[in-house]
Write a structure and sequence with these properties.
The protein is built from 7 helices and 18 strands. It is of the alpha/beta class. Strand 1 and strand 2 form a beta hairpin. The structure holds zinc ion. Zinc ion (ZN) binds next to loops. This is Succinylglutamate desuccinylase/Aspartoacylase catalytic domain-containing protein.
């Protein structure tokens, strides 16, 4: 009953950056969902996770789905997080500038032609090769109606972990979505730069869960309930940075529960002597963890996020109660 996928090339003017958009239209009323992969060009799990949506069977019952597997093409071709020419981080460039650098022009193109006009945004990222994060779906929870819908979508994704934020830093796809009143979620996972079939199934299945939640696909098995729900700013303020350059040795694992000031790692010299101790910045769960050993002074190595309290005094409290209590 669903038509075939079609593809369209969008470009920011002559010779400007562009994206290839794959679209599946059910021909029936319903939400317009946008899925982005590769906003960071080297985050291959999100790229293939998004891309394989467009090649597998998808019996769309309502609305339309648009998928951009590789959003920052120049960065992808350079196997880089950022644009090789201008050094631009697309995930810090929204709403963009049609007269700016190539990355700013790309942000303007994606923002104006794709995010604007969508009813839901799903932005698929991964950790970097140097840093791990758990597999989670996250988004803004500032109490607004779009954010509250987004929180429900993050639960529906079914990653097993939800991470909500009271505010968002500037320049993200989610920041623009917030300005436009569009519910939006993002996804992260460990093992940046590496493909893993189970993880790819997690990405693709998660998007299918979101589409089912929106009534665009027939409901499948209910998504996993969140085993852990973190709430915090998810930004740099809750990271511990290395006090010295050297070789970082983690002493905790992702999601470990830590107390404020607890020792979580150390920086060693080549003979294994301790140059500095790294302590947890606050009580909570280890949500980001440096993997690669070589660190400069000031490298953020351990990020900690507290578990969400059952009552934030926001509309999402009801979403939380349903999700956790089932
Ligand atoms: Zn990313």
């Amino acid at each position: 009953m669903t038509g075939a996928w079609s593809s369209e090339r969008l470009t920011a003017g002559d010779g400007g950056p562009g994206v290839t958009v794959h679209e599946l239209d059910s021909g029936r009323d319903g939400p317009s969902v946008l899925v982005l992969g590769g906003v960071h060009g080297n985050e291959v799990g999100g790229i293939v996770g998004a891309g394989r949506l467009t090649t597998g069977p998808l019996d769309l019952r309502a609305g339309r789905l648009r998928v951009v597997p590789v959003t920052h093409e120049a960065a992808f071709e350079a196997d880089s997080r950022t644009g090789p020419g201008d050094g631009g981080n697309l995930a810090r460039s929204f709403p963009g500038d049609p007269a700016g650098t190539p990355t700013q022009r790309l942000a303007a193109l994606v923002g104006d032609r794709l995010i604007r006009g969508s009813d839901v945004l799903v932005d698929l990222h991964t950790s970097t090769p140097a840093t791990d994060m758990p597999f989670f779906a996250g988004g803004l929870d500032d109490g607004g109606p779009a954010a509250t819908t987004g929180v429900a979508l993050a639960v529906a994704f079914g990653a097993g972990i939800v991470w909500t934020h009271g505010s968002l830093g500037p320049g993200r796809t989610l920041t623009l979505a917030r300005e436009l009143g569009i519910p939006a979620i993002y996804v992260e996972s460990p093992g940046g730069g590496v493909l893993d079939r189970a993880r790819l199934d997690g990405y693709t299945g998660g998007v299918r869960n979101v589409l089912a939640h929106l009534g665009m696909l027939a409901a499948e098995a209910p998504p996993a309930r969140p085993g852990l729900w973190l709430h915090g700013d998810g930004d740099t303020d809750s990271f511990t940075v290395t006090p010295a350059a050297g070789l970082f040795l983690p002493e905790v694992a992702l999601l470990d529960r830590v107390e404020r000031g607890q020792r979580v790692g150390s920086v060693l010299d080549p003979r294994g002597r301790e140059l500095a101790v790294v302590a947890a910045p606050e009580a909570g769960h280890v949500a980001t963890l440096q993997r690669s050993a070589v660190v400069a002074a000031g490298t953020p190595v351990v990020g900690v996020a507290p578990a969400r309290p059952p009552v934030l005094g926001r509309p999402s409290d009801a979403v939380y109660a349903r999700a956790v209590a089932g």
